[in-house]
Structures are given as C-alpha cells and as structure tokens.
Fold these 2 entries.
Entry 1:
Amino acid sequence: MESTLDIFIKAIFSENMIFAYFLGMCSYLAVSKTVKTAVGLGAAVIFVLVVTVPVNYLLENYLLKEGALEWLNPDWGVNGASTIDLSFLSFIMFIAVVASIVQLVEMLVEKFAPALYGALGIFLPLIAVNCSILGGALFMQDRQYSTILDATAFSLGSGIGWFIAIVAIAAIREKIRYSNVPAPLRGLGITFIITGLMGIAFMSFSGIKYGKDEVKAKTVQSDDTNNINP
Amino acid sequence: MSETVKTKAPRNPLFSKKNKKLITDPLTDNNPVTIQVLGICSALAITVQVEQGVVMGGAVLFVLVLGNLIISLLRNLIPSRIRIIVQLVVVAALVIIVNEVLKAFLPDVSEKLSVFVGLIITNCIIMGRFEAFAMANKPWPSVMDAIGNGLGYAGLLILVAVFRELFGSGTLYGFPIFGDYIEGNGLYSLGYVNNNMMILPPMALIIVGVIIWVQRSRNKALIEEY
C-alpha cells in the first residue's frame, strides 16, 4: 500500500504531468518564454488542481461511481440506488466542475486578494482548458485513491511537478537566446527537443521504490518515509 | 444544415478553391500540431503504437467535425460571456459518445488510451478551432476546416507513431516487420536490437522536434525569430 507521502513524491517526480504524460503541453509551450509568467501560470495550476481534484473526488465517490449513490438507500426511501452507475457522466461533470470553479476562484481572488489577482489573474481563464487539470481529475478516477487526503496529495504533487517543469523550461529558453541554434529549430523545435531531454533526465526518478511491502527486509523506517533503492 | 448549404450553393460551389484550401492548408503549412502548436497534450502519449494513433486521430476527427458543425449552427445564439462553457459542454457530450463507442467495440484500445480519450475535451485543437473558426463562420466552411485540421492532427499522430512503433517494437500496426524478436529470426538473427528508448515518452517529443526541424528547413517562411 502506498502511503500519502509516496503518492505525493511520485506525482512530482516519476509520474510528472509534463514529462511522463504530456498533460498541459499547450500552455507549457505557449507561456514558457519568460520565467516570470511561467511562475505565475505554474502557481495558478497548483492552486486550481488542489481545489478541483478533491471536489471531483467527492463527486466521483458520492455520485458517479457504481454504487456511489448507496447513501440514498435507507434514509431517503430510494430502493436499489446502490446499483446505479453514473460513471458515463464523469467527463461532463468533471469539466463543468473545473470550468465553474475556475470562474469562482477568479471572482473570489479578484475580490479578496487583488495583489494575487494581479499576479495570477490573466492565467486563470486559460487554465479551464489546461489538460493537466482535467487530467488530474481523470487520473484520480482511474487510480481510485482510497481517501480524500491521498487525492489531495496527488493533486498537490502534480501541481508542483508541473510548476517545476514550466519554470525549468522557461529558464532554459531565456538562456538559449544567446546560443546559436540552427535556424529551422529555433523557437518551437528546440523547445520540444529540450523537453525530451529533460524528460529523459526525469526518467531517472523512476528508480525510486515506493510502498513498503516489497522492501520489508530492508531498513525499517518511520511510516511516512519511502525507501530509495538505487 | 442542408438548408444553409442549398441557399449557399449557387453563389459558392461546395468544393470551391477557398473551401479546398481550408482542408489542404492544415495538412502541411498550417499543421495544427507542428505550426499552430495545438493539441500536443494528448497527442504524444498515445503514439507508441500506430493502432492507438489511428483510433485517437479518428476520435478527434469525429469530435472536431461534429463539434465545429454544432458550434457553427449555434454561433448566433451563444452569448459571448459564457461561450467557453457552452463549447466545453458540446465537446464533453461528443467525447462521451466516442468513449462509450470505443468501450463497446474496441475494448483493448480503449483500455490502452485510458484517460486520454477524456482528455480530448481539453484538446487545444478543438477549443482553438471553435474559437477561431466555428464561432465566426457558416456551417459548411466550418466542417471543411474541421476535416482539414482533424486530418492534419491524425496525420502527424500516425507519422510519429510509425517511427516509434517501427524502431521501438519492430512492428507496424501489430504486424512484425523485422522478424520475430522472441524467436530471433529475420533481422534479429543479424544482431539487430529494438531501440527501447523509442517506447519511452521523451522520444515522442524529440521525434516531433525533428519533424518540425525537417518541415521548417524545407519551408523557410515558417522559421521563427526567437
């Protein structure tokens, strides 16, 4: 069984949204020209992921999953509610939740934290159609995390992983202006190739061993520490 | 739909030069993936095998054509403040249809594509074409535009998948090309080894980078200033 910390670390490094699944590539390529805007977008992605994934988790477990409507059964006088399977509706529900929460967050931030709005504001509407947000919800559904804490840890980890990726590529793109890239590769082409090389570097994190069952014989550590086998 | 076409037909034939251009442009010099940089999100992860690329390309083509048609028909009814939500609902409904059909008829592929079918909803090509074309044009040109962009996307997907499957697992669409790897006959008896690197995600990015490189050195007009 994976601990919450395992899920968190895994989401940042070995299952990084950008390098392992290419989610959110469109905004990753479009908004990574300078570090400053990249930091803004990255922070907005972390924020929205952490808010939407737990909400979608509740939706999945109390409304959509097969048998999720069981809570209707005894108290509300509905019979056979535990056999209802609404999971075919999950795409439309998830995207509606994401789009409306993004709108809501935008309004709340504008009202209560104008300074933050100045930094994140222009990126928030972009995020409703960022694949990594919907991807977070769909991976959460696919992997069936057992508690809402695990789902939140996964969303925070994915957000941080995305943040690291976009800030790193933005820093590299700022510096690459000074080097002599072959003309046809300039801009988009070299960005793709660098992202590929960064992805290869990130693959080395897949050597991290998660979970405690397989490594019982190794040094016993405290509950939340994962074993790293080189 | 048919009415609009009829009233339009005498002035502007269905396959006029302008309409044809809408289809052919995205295939080459205005390719959605390599030039407009849209839809890369879901494009790369599923190009390990040609079969997945074909299914994904077909799914996106279907969603894009019907979505563009629906949005184009509704374009005067959608208030511009809530247009993103309306567009998302239309795409989501179409993607649910695709997902259920795939689950029923191609369960293996559906299993492999897993979350990436759902991610068609946020595929930037679809939202991009809705915003840039369907919201401002009549249904028939919108359908043409959708077919062009869908084919451009599918074509690139299949191209990347051909390289990755051929060099990564030595097969094409599941058929062995270089002989049987496990039995070690064919090319493998000469000591040829599959390049496992090709199956890993980063190689998809590098292959797309190289395709962009080749395309832009052939057409100098596409070269970017930093």
Entry 2:
Amino acid sequence: MLKIVNLKAAINGKEILKGLNLEVKPGEVHAIMGPNGSGKSTLAAVLAGREIFEVTEGQIMFEGKDLTTLSPEDRAREGIFLGFQYPIEIPGVSMNNFMKTAVNEVRKYRGLTPLTAGEFLKMMREKKELVEIDSKLTNRSVNEGFSGGEKKKNEIFQMAMLEPKLAILDETDSGLDIDALRIVANGVNKLKSSENAVIVITHYQRLLDYIVPDFVHVLYNGQIVRSAGKELAYELEEKGYDWIKKEVDQLEAN
Amino acid sequence: MNQYKEELNPETNQDQLLQEMTQSDYKYGFVTDIESDTIEKGLSEETVRLISGKKNEPAWMLEFRLKAYRHWLTLPLPTWPHLTIPEIDYQDIIYYSAPKQKKSLSSLDEVDPELLDTFNKLGIPLDEQKLLTGVAVDAVMDSVSVKTTFKKNLADLGIIFCSFSEAVQEYPDLVKKYMGTVVPYRDNYYAALNSAVFSDGSFVYIPKGVRCPMELSTYFRINAANTGQFERTLIVADDNAYVSYLEGCTAPMRDENQLHAAIVEIIAMDHASVKYSTVQNWYPGDKEGKGGIYNFVTKRGMCKGVHSKISWTQVETGSAVTWKYPSCILRGDHSVGEFYSVAVTNNYQQADTGSKMIHIGKNTKSTIVSKGISAGRSQNSYRGLVRVARNADNARNFSQCDSLLLGDKCGAHTFPYLEVDNQSAIVEHEATTSKIGEDQIFYCNQRGISTEDAIGLIVNGYAKEVLNQLPMEFAVEAQKLLQISLEGSVG
C-alpha cells in the first residue's frame, strides 16, 4: 500500500528526514516512536503533502502512485488521512458543512455521486455512534472552542466519515485523559479492517495497549533505526531511547 | 470552423483554457458593440441643460439640476475617507450615453437584440417568461433604462415600478414631493454632482397597505467607455406597505477608471417596511490595480412613519474604490434601521464603507453588522456613525464589525463614531479581527477540499450572518461571487 524508499526531506534547507524506509501493507498497524525532534511529525506532514517541507530525495509510492506528484487534497482523496497533533479551528464553518464538502469531494474524485442530504445525515449519525462522540459537537464550528479531548475525538470522527485507506495518527494520544484515550483507541480499532492500514505516531507505550501494533519502528535522527514487533514498545518504555541512540551513534562513528 | 481548428491544435486549446481560468475572476468584462447617443466630454451648465433637454424634462427638474450644479462648484473634494484616489478630471468624463433604440417600447420585440443579448449574458433575461419567477427587473445601461419587466402585473396592485425618467414624466407630483428629501443636493460632493447630471435609475411607489408580491430589482450596467454613470433611485413605501428591492451592477474591463456616483433615497411611512439589497460587482480593476470603477454612492433611508423599518444588505465585491454608507434616519417612533454588509477587497481595491444610524424618534432600534474581508494589497475600512438625538428616548443600537484578513499585505481599519445625547440610550459596539491561516487551508486540503473551496467555505461561514439576509435567489449567487473575488488570494 505504502512504500517509502530512501526519503529525504528538508524545511528551510535543513534536512529532517535523512533516508527513511518504510513499507506498510493493508491490514497492518505500524507504530512510530522516537525521541523529540527525530522527525516523526515531519514524516506525517510530508506524507500529507504539507508544502513547507521539501522532498529532496527518495520515493513515496501509495497504491502504485507517486505521492510526491499529488496535491494535499488529491492525497486525501486517494485515501490518506492525517489525524492532526493540533487540530485546527475554523470559526464560522459548521462541522456539518465541512464534512459534507469533504465527503462529497472525495466521492467525486472516486467517480461517485454526491450524497443526498438524507444519506449524509444518516452517515453522520452512524459514525458518531461508532466513535462515541457527543452529537452536539457536529452542530458547532470546526474544532472551535473544543476541549483538547474533543478535538482528538473529532479527528477520529472525521476519519470514520472519510473511510481512508491509510490513516496517520500524529500523537493522537497527547493531552488525552484515560477515558478519552480509550474512546479514541476504540474508534480506531472499530475502523480497522483487512483493507486499510494505520500508522500511529506516539511517544508513549500507553496508547499501544489499546491500539495494538503489528510493527514498532524507532525513528531517530531522520531514519528508522530499529523495527520489531510490539515488544519493542515495552522495551522502550522501560529503558528509554538512550541505548538506541548510543548504538546508532556508535555505528555511525565506525 | 473554430472548433475544427481547436481540435487540430491541442496547444491552442490549452492556452485558451488557461486564459479562461486566469480571467475567471471577472466574467462580466465584455463590451457590447452598440450604437450610442453620446454627448461630448465635459461638464458645464450647458451639459446639465443638454441632459435635461434630452430627457425632455419639465422646468422644475432642470431648475433642481442647475441649483445642484452651482452648489457642486462651491464644494471641496472630500478628503476624510481612508482612500487614495488619483485626481479625477471631471471635464474628461462623458455625462450622458444612451444605447440607441426606438423611442417608446411597447413590447420586447422592439428592444435591440444586442441589448437583450447583453443582459442575457449577464444572467438577466428580460423576457418575462424566462425571468426568475417573482422578480421584476428594471435594466439600466449607461444612462438610460432599457426595459422594465412585469410592469403591468404590478400596476394592477397600484405599484409603480418604472425608470426614473419615466416617473418624472408620468408621476411628477410624487417625484417632486419626495426627491431630495432624504439626500438633499447639498448633502455632499458626489450627491451634488449626481443631482446635477443624473441620467436614469428606478422609481418605486408602493401604495398604502400593499405588500409587493415580487422582488423588485434594478440591474445597472456601464458599457460605454469614458462614461460616468449617475443613477438615482427613489423608493417610497406608503403606510403598511412592504417591498424587497435588489440592485446588481457590472461593467466591462477597461484600463481607465470610470466614475459611478449614485443616489438612493428610501422613504418608509407608518408601519411600512423596505428591504434593500445590493450585490455590487463593478469591475474592480486588474491585478496590478489598473482600471476599475470608482463607486461613490450616497444611499439613505428615512423611517418617516411610526413602526417603520428600513433594512440595507450589501455584498460589495467589485469597484476599484468604494465610498458608501447606506444609512437610516429613524424619525418615526419605534422605527427600526438595519445594515448588513460584506465588503471584499482584493488586489489593489480600496473600500471605505459602513453605515449611519440617526436616532431621532423614541424607542428606535438599529443594528449594524459589517464583515470586511481583505486580501492582496487591498485596504478595507469600516466607518460608521451612531447618533442618538436629545429626544430619542430608549434608543438602542448594536454594532458589530468584523475584519478577516487573507495574507499580510492588506489592511483592515475600523472607524466607529458615537454621538449620544440621550441618557436612556443603549449603544453597543463589538469588533473582531481574524485571519485565514495557511494551517486552516491545509487542514481543509487534508480532508480532500481544494484551496479555492476551502476559502469559499471559510469566507461564506464568516459572512453567513449577512448572506442570510439576502433574498434566496441571490444568496447563492452572492456566495459564489465571494469565492470568485478571492480566487488566487491565498498560497
């Protein structure tokens, strides 16, 4: 589904990703962990097509297409969803209107007719139940005045509405209390299928108790320096990152 | 033939597409090639007499024009607006230009097909069958009214809806009684100029107790080059009458600036209600700020009777420079004045616009909601006055002015003036400034929404309160217009 080969990306001339490789297949859950400043959020932004990042080398193939040639909106329409670390407020634009535009744009791209008002409202209702978010949230403007937890739940709700092939959740667990964390994780689990995939970016093993990854990768200094099963997350929780940093730095010194 | 060529040469096709795309911001920029009756450039008493003569006006009307002209000569140019306007050479303007057509029109067949075609292209078919149901139109091109639709249906109810020139001939008593009572020719520089040289416009009279069953609308079109448009509209709603009126305006794309200085007067008697909506889309000039219309307009309504109401709604997207303050004089006790405005400026456009609410009667109420949107290198100012007179007990005003900025090269300014001479008045003013951020756009992009649509969503969300005031048929049009006006302004 997703194949990243030797990806290098920079912001204002400063290289952040330094030859990253990653392959994600349908049905898989990948967790990306790593110390602050290792490039985790940059990876998410580059995949979503944020323009301030420049891809200087390497390849990102998604479902056989070269992602780097697509606009951010076309990537979304192809089925890439980014759950934002800091969801953006858009005053004056109702969630209803926002979601309707988004869903219908994606449908148009896929050659489907727009949903009727009735169909759309039914879908909204179903998805709201699925991800257990407060019905009233969708009557408000996009993220405006939402609490931290509400914003994150709203991201998962939007993910449910857009039914992406690949969801990238950028520190969705940050700032969540334990109840909200469970709701968010439950939502993600319910949306999981053999056809889609999830990349979870997180600092803490805590989230991975709920969203169980098939692979855990450690991103350090712009590269994936270690990949293993979910047990790696426990090891990191226990020992921190220093031992990996040391190993890598030593390797490079040699 | 043309099509054949296009098929052979895909490159031409692409170029055309590209051109269409980049010019899509102003789709009304075409010129109609039509023979016109145009007078010489320049302004003098002679010009005023000539215009009056062409319209075959009675002596009192010429007298009014001449008084206005002589007064205008004594006036200095207003310099208080937050606008930069190159000096206008009033001798370099044509003050009268009329598309040539047969004298009196009894049916549509007699309207020049070129003219019909022009208004068709603008989406204003003058064929009653094809018109939006429930909308009667007066179409004004340059200095004259081309055609007024549904006149007969309206006449059955005693409603008068005709061109101003016709009203001068047919209903001189009404015109004489009301003209200049809300906006006297001495009012300001451009009002004096208009009163001297005005050419045409619409006249509306709704008799006692009549609720006008359809939207009345005037569509103004500037076509001829170097010509100024000076129209005058007068709307009178008698006791217990109601009317909703809409004006629209467009002009061709030309490199030189053109002057538009209009007057609108509204009078509402006891329990009468008038709703006046404007979708102003004069040519704004090109991306470098070349050309465009100078839109200097005086619009004012008088709530003369008790419990009367006048409501202004404006969507201002066009014009190189806009100078306009639709106002209400709340003279009748319990009268209500409203002003809802969305003003968009992009590229090098400048707007200094707002409202005046003058509370004179007791228990009068006014509302001002102004939404400015600035993009490019434009300057957008809100200027508003709320005055509560000494005897206006229990006057109430609520003003809200919001500014939305796109990019960092534009400016938004707010100039509220309050003059309160009565202790019992309650006057509230709220103001906010916000920005469309790149992160908001990216958030929308990431959900599959293009940048253009994202701006449309955000801007329309922001302006919703005002757009909701527009008659249904025009609200959709106005939404699209907002989006088009801001195309290419982010990212």
